[in-house]
């Protein structure tokens, strides 16, 4: 007698499985995300439940020369930078981003770039009809690129097409949440369907030796929708970020088995598609008003690339019992710590002031070296005194008020000198090479030295 299909309750947010339905997931705490899913039993004679005797494996040692993975150069320097030097045949990449941010445009340009270099590229669209994709390609000037296109959501049909077609160098699936297989009695986009589709496509990519690009939706918190197991089985996870109020877009690697995870690619959304930005510093400083109090230029690092960005601060008299603290593009907790250090170590009080901090251009800064630039912007706004427009700041501030050295100080200074900056306020610690930059240095060891130059400290 054939076994009946099994029913389980799966959280659509985190993938946790429970034996009964509940309004709140006990694993991630989300409400109304648990859905009943029915998994079809294995076909008779499949041998899935039958234990088989394995074969012994030949063990190897760690010694030996490492083999560099072969690469498919895309021909787009920003993409090649983020992926670690190009696509690796047989690798699987997952790219995520908010709706309308430009994921489909980016992947269509990528597929066209490879196809024009003589590579075989296949693009499966599960969200748009083939006519819509062709319309976008015509608008981007890519209609002449030999990209094979199909609009399909059935996983079985996609795998059958890939099996009959000539071996592809690149396969794009947009998006993984739209695929479904009739082996599961679950709606497309559910945890079971996403997991099954991902595993099947990853298995094909490894066997065929083609690069596979999957598009993933994101939740309201910016996390990749679906089970976390999807992020674990892929080789690279890329995040396509940006603010709809700005034209720039940033491609960031959060996981990469074949390269570094601290590189970013910068693009600008234009009428003809995404344009690569070779010098992001000029983009983020292009509309800078240097005469306004409360602005400081931060020399940051994104991987091996130095980027100069403006940090803006507004300190205004508060009429509230509890002053407001708002920050965009930086960590809220980091701003609270910085204000506490200024009050405790420098005697600068913000108790009667609202504090607003913003990173110009919509860029999000993660490194602690931005502390000194943020402190300079806060003090400048509080004193209503503009900083030197040809001056940059970088350095980490500890709870004692000491200014600590930052990595890659020479690269930061070289980038600043290249853009015409003549002065830099940097930590006193840290070695610099003689030819690191032809720029004036003001080295400080404590935050109080910076505050005394703008405000009288107690």
Q: Measured on Cα atoms, how large is the radius of gyration?
A: 26 Å
Strand percentage, roughly? 25-35%
Question: What topology, given as strand order, has the largest sheet?
Answer: 6-5-7-9-4-10-11-12-13
Which class of secondary structure composition applies to the elements?
Answer: alpha/beta
Number of helices: 11
List its salient traits.
458 residues, alpha/beta, seven-stranded mixed sheet, single chain, globular, 22 strands, 25% helix
Tell me the layout of helices and strands.
Elements: E1 6-11, E2 17-18, E3 34-39, H1 77-83, E4 92-97, H2 103-115, E5 121-125, H3 130-139, E6 148-151, H4 155-164, E7 170-174, E8 184-185, H5 191-208, E9 211-216, H6 229-233, E10 236-242, E11 248-256, E12 264-270, E13 273-276, H7 280-284, E14 295-302, E15 305-317, E16 325-328, H8 332-346, E17 353-359, H9 371-383, E18 391-393, E19 396-397, E20 403-404, H10 409-418, E21 423-427, E22 440-444, H11 447-454
Parallel strand pairs: 4-9, 4-10, 5-6, 5-7, 7-9, 14-18, 16-17, 18-21, 21-22
Antiparallel strand pairs: 1-2, 1-3, 3-8, 10-11, 11-12, 12-13, 14-15, 15-17, 19-20
């Amino acid at each position: 007698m054939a076994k009946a299909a099994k029913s389980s309750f799966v959280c659509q947010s985190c993938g946790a499985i429970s034996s009964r339905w509940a309004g709140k997931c006990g694993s991630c705490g989300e409400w109304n995300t648990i859905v009943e899913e029915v998994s079809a039993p294995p076909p008779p004679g499949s041998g899935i439940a039958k234990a088989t005797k394995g074969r012994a494996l030949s063990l190897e040692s760690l010694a030996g020369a490492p083999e560099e993975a072969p690469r498919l150069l895309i021909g787009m320097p920003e993409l090649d930078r983020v992926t670690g030097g190009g696509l690796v045949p047989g690798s699987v990449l997952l790219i995520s981003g908010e709706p309308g941010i430009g994921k489909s445009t980016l992947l269509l340009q990528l597929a066209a770039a490879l196809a024009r270099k003589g590579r075989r590229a296949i693009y499966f669209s599960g969200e748009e009809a083939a006519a819509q994709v062709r319309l976008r390609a015509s608008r981007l000037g890519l209609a002449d690129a030999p990209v094979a296109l199909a609009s399909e959501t059935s996983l079985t049909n996609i795998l059958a097409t890939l099996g009959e077609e000539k071996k592809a160098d690149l396969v794009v699936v947009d998006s993984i949440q739209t695929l479904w297989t009739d082996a599961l009695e679950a709606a497309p986009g559910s945890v079971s369907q996403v997991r099954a589709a991902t595993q099947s496509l990853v298995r094909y990519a490894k066997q065929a030796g083609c690069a596979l690009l999957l598009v993933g939706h994101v939740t309201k918190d910016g996390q990749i929708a679906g089970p976390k197991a999807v992020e674990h089985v892929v080789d690279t996870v890329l995040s396509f970020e940006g603010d709809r109020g700005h034209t720039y877009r940033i491609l960031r690697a959060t996981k990469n088995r074949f390269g570094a995870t601290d590189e970013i690619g910068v693009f600008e959304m234009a009428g003809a598609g995404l344009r690569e930005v070779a010098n992001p510093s000029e983009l983020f400083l292009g509309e800078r008003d240097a005469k306004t109090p409360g602005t400081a230029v931060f020399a940051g690092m994104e991987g091996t690339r130095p980027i100069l960005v403006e940090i803006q601060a507004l300190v205004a008299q508060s009429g509230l019992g509890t002053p407001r603290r708002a920050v965009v593009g930086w960590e809220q907790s980091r701003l609270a710590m910085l204000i506490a250090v200024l009050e405790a170590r420098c005697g600068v009080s913000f108790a009667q002031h609202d504090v607003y901090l913003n990173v110009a251009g919509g860029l999000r800064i993660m490194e602690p070296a931005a502390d000194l630039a943020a402190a300079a912007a806060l003090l400048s706004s509080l004193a209503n005194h503009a900083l030197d427009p040809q001056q940059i700041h970088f350095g980490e501030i500890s709870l004692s008020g000491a200014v600590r050295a930052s990595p890659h100080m020479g690269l930061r200074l070289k980038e600043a000198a290249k853009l015409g900056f003549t002065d830099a306020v940097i930590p006193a610690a840290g070695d610099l090479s003689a030819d690191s930059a032809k720029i004036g240095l003001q080295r400080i060891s404590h935050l109080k030295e910076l505050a005394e130059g703008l405000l009288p400290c107690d």
